[in-house]
Amino acid sequence: MSALSALSALSALSALSALSASAQAPSAPPAVAAPAGLRLPPVQRATLPNGVAIRLVEMHEVPLVQVTLTVKGGGRLDGERAGRASFTANLLDEGAGTRDAFGIAEQAAFLGADLGTGADWDDLVVSLNTPKRTMGDALDLMADVALRPTFKASDVARERDLRLAQIVQQRDQPGGMAALAFGAIVFPAGHPYRRPLGGDSAGVAGLDSATVRGFYQRVFRPDRAELVITGDITLAEAKTEIVRRFGRWRPNRMPVFHAPAPPPVPRPERRTVDLIDKPGAAQSVIMIGSPGVSRTSPDYAAIEVMNTILGGSFSSRLNQNLRETRGYTYGAGSGFSYRPVPGPFTARAAVRTDVTDSSLVEFFRELNAIRDSTVSPVELERARNYIVFGLPGQFETTGQMADQVQELLTFNLPPTYLSTYVGQVMKVTAADVQRVARQYFDPARVHVVVVGDVSRIRPGIEALELGPVMVRDLEGRAVSN
């Protein structure tokens, strides 16, 4: 062997020895630095003479502008006509001004803009994301959609048929079935969340052009409107552009719709189990829930840390147990639905039919464990870091910033709230986690809704003796066993 070959062999042997030693020595994870404070640009405010509120955040890094128009209304105003608000919102860009749906889409594409309409439980929304250089023309298009929709009978009929087909489809999908039944079982008559935001067949079938136009005229008013604007624009520029398109918007004389106060949502006196039959289903969809909590609760930060540990992240207890350890599901989780009228707390998963009862055992094992004992320091630190280090990523784009500003407005939170939130999260203790878990849900007083093949899953569920077992339809009505 030459000297060079021997040297090469010796070097290789040394390298292998070093690798072997490093493989045997345990490596410590890198230390996580303390999170920096979240410093956000100010939210600037203005109000037009007609009542339209403007909230603006300057973001000059890229030449884009996000404009989001929200009008107080949404699904809470549906009344006896479920789905009316979301149906009306979806029709805004089906025809407006002199353009039909294709003309609107073509113009938006030509301008490089993204224009959308929709509704949630509390607002009708028209959103626009546009390059700065085409902003004027894009705002003209947005104003047409928002202020001059046509609601042609042919467009209404087409969208109504499409919505009815979607409702039929939802009623045949286990996940959709679970959501429908859960709402009907948990929320009392007269509560807006009892029926889906998209409506039901009875409500949607009666929607026509006159009904939609009447709803729009009584809801879509400047004194109920807010414009959240983010991006490469100043407040002075924004006011000039908005006045030009929305300054002459005037409320009509029709009576104004106001959302009635919803009835209280009682917590069940005991745990109940309701089964919705889906014969031949390969999976069961499990939803466990109870009345939720207000977004403005002083315990919000502690609740979010607690739920991150329980079911709000991939490394949560529910997901690690049911997915990683047991292999029962592709994913399990939990969360609180925060709305001006609080939504529910839910824990859910789609599991194999043959392990439906075993999955319920594991759900309640975790729901009880987080209440019965304090979380470990490692879990607590990981959950707090998960929240605070992920927070900056929610402010990267103009659209994300607009969403965050809109949340402040929706829940009437102060502009300084986001700057203090990191500190609130980092102050959450293990005792806080246990306290809010005990306070805001009780596994012994929840609704358990399971969609699956009742003939296969019922015996195992009844053997668990979780509570009275009832077979129901999607409207929450008891059916013969």
How is this structure best described in words?
This protein is an alpha+beta fold and 481 residues long. The chain has 17 helices and 14 strands. A six-stranded mixed beta sheet has the order 1-2-8-3-7-6, sandwiched between helices. It has a six-stranded mixed beta sheet with strand order 11-12-10-13-9-14, with helices on both faces. A two-stranded antiparallel sheet has the order 4-5. The longest helix is centred in the first third of the chain and has 22 residues. The protein is globular and about 65 Å long. The relative contact order is 0.14.
Annotation field: number of helices: 17
CATH architectural grouping of the largest domain: 2-Layer Sandwich
Secondary-structure class: alpha+beta
What's the arrangement of strands in the largest beta sheet? 1-2-8-3-7-6
Indicate the CATH class of the largest domain.
Alpha Beta
The percentage helix is 40-55%
Span of the ends, CA to CA: 86 Å
The count of DSSP E runs of length 2 or more, i.e. the number of strands, is: 14
Proportion of residues in β-strands: 15-25%
Parts with pLDDT < 50 across at least 5 consecutive residues: 1-13, 15-19
What is the fold's blueprint, element by element?
Elements: H1 3-24, E1 44-47, E2 53-58, E3 64-72, H2 84-91, E4 95-96, E5 99-100, H3 101-111, E6 114-119, E7 123-131, H4 135-147, H5 153-170, H6 174-186, H7 201-205, H8 209-219, E8 225-231, H9 235-246, E9 272-277, E10 283-291, H10 300-310, H11 317-325, E11 329-336, E12 344-352, H12 356-372, H13 377-390, H14 398-410, H15 417-426, H16 430-440, E13 447-452, H17 454-464, E14 469-471
Parallel strand pairs: 2-8, 9-13, 9-14
Antiparallel strand pairs: 1-2, 3-7, 3-8, 4-5, 6-7, 10-12, 10-13, 11-12
